[in-house]
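Q: Sequence in, structure out?
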Amino acid sequence: MSTVSGVSSALDQYQIKQDTTQNKELGKNEFLNLLVAQLNNQNPLEPQGNGEFIAQLAQFSQVEGIEKLNSSMGSLLSGYQSSQALQASSMVGRKVIVPTDKAVVDTSQSFRASAVLPTSSSNVFVNVYNQAGSVVSRINLGEQAAGNVSFIWDGKDASGNLLPPGTYKFEAQASYGNETKGLYTMLPANVDSVTLGGSELMLNLAGLGSVPLSQVQVIGQ
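A: Exactly. Output:
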């Protein structure tokens, strides 16, 4: 009658065969051959006595499960990248609203933006600076309730002269008694191009540089 010692002999023979082949991994066919050899040589009175055999079954099952998981994750990543590419192509040429204090302004048209007011204020105003850092205009909004406060700049200086197109800085502030605090501004920008790769889609905005898609508050036409 065959005994468990036959299993050890079969394992030894298989190990010798494996050692003669370099860089060869245990695949499904090799594992099945090993399985048949173990079943043929195990003790029929103690079919579950071979703890090593049971451990091998569990290990092979885990490895196969990990391979399937890796394959599924690869397919998911490929689909996500394709979705990113499609999303990127639709963003080029559109206008977005992002948290920034600078914007490229076409002064021949009214410039519309907003400021974020955390609490109500008795007086809200926005200073407009040119590229030289000089204040060219001031937009007075008066008393405002908490929330997004919209403002419009006509592209003119304090004397009513139309300014040239270019990059301007917008500094929003709110008065609270004798104290004045700065506010976040939400300004429009045009998407010139997009950059794929990494963990997030990056938008390359005209005159502003790159910002992650997660910072975009509104996507316009």
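Helices lie at 5-19, 28-41, 51-91.
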